[in-house]
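hey can u check if this looks right to u? its 508 residues, i copy pasted from the old doc so theres a chance i mangled smth
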Amino acid sequence: MTTTQTAPKETGTGNMAPQTFNNLINGQWKPAKSGKTFQNLNPADPSDCIGTFPASDAQDVQEAVEAAKKAYDAWRLTPAPRRGEIIFKAGQILMERKEQYAREMTREMGKVLAETRGDIQEAIDMCFYTAGEGRRLFGHTTPSELQNKFCMSLRMPIGVCGLITPWNFPMAIPSWKLIPALIAGNTVVLKPASDTPLSSLRLVEVLQEAGVPEGVINLVYGSGSTVGNPLIDHPDVRLISFTGSCEVGRSVNERCAPNFKRVSLELGGKNAAIILEDANLDLAVEGIVWGAFGTAGQRCTATSRVIVQKGIHAELRDRLVKRINGLKLGYGLEKGIDVGPVVNESAMNKILEYIEIGKKEGQLLTGGERDTAAGAGWFIKPTLIDNINTKHRIAQEEIFGPVTALMPVADLDEAIHVANDIEFGLSTAIYTKDVNKAFRALRDLEAGITYVNAPTIGAEVHLPFGGVKNTGNGHREAAETALDIFTEWKACYVDYSDRLQRAQIDHN
């Protein structure tokens, strides 16, 4: 087994000295063939460079795909229970290093330490849950319509999988893709987001240490144009799993279509929490604040719309403003911080542009500007905008920042209509004490996820994750449903009659 890369070291300022990191190709850590690099900066303090990473291109992708293809036969023939044991061991190693990796993640991504611990925990949970699939990977047996004939179906691996992951959950989301792909017997090339390269590297290092053979996992850094597109277009890559924006997802889908390449897309969201007049408002306020401003609103499941029944609109509004104004912004490694920075300057500027749009469409209640007092990084004050309707842009377009909008409605029927009146369908929530209304919402809300008396965020790895409409293309990550992405079904027939039998014809 090759050695892992050096961990960043603490400096006197409390930051870590920058290190140089490389791609992993065929078990070897290598720089980009071009020699180009990019810097990984701390969004809470852009003067803090975490490290330099290879700015790879199609040459590096080609080498990585060749390595994955070469390793495929041996890995797919490794018994699935053995693959599961390796993945279980990786989960154990992650448990031991959870605090170290969480602190590194806060530094490179910005969300507060409690949340990055949760990100690592999700990867741990995915390892432990998916390891069990090594002794399941169930197919089906079924009676034949003919005598002396046995029928069954099996899950088969697909081959080399290209995994393209975002920056907001830099270990959890790679684990959602990487771990199920491995347990199914596939080999992979992983392209993580350039804003959060270190966390993906740590996950790959752990899997190496746990015993994944050389070439089974390959890690290539770089941009979407120089690494992502060559990976998508490569004829030996049989599957692309992508999480990101609808715009990019549409392009990924189009690039995969000519070669009939399997593609799994997890895209945008514009998630609504419905607050009815009988709701526990204390609970609803806490759920809205957590759902809207956790991870600085940078979640595809973030609560970006609050659909509130008119009878409690004023009270909920006032409570939210007070609660939001009590949130503390700052560097996520410091104690008492509730909200960290957004990921980079470009994201900050885009969010501020949406806030200006929202101020024209509705009424700004609090926030609405950059918070320079929180530090030199990309901090935006948590923002609440009132009196928004479905015709407004901030009710329709994904902002991906600490912004949410109040949308008053008359009753549950209007609330469900407003919640569904968007192009997305990822997560929804309803706060009510009426079980009948709760079950109507569960039935009628057009979403892949619905919570009752809980925020729109908080998915667990043993339930399917994904959405409807423009949120994706019908696949679900996590749970056993992830195996439907990373396996093909094969129907098997064994005829032990010792004579020719013709299905649909011979019935005697």
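The two ends are 60 Å apart (CA to CA).
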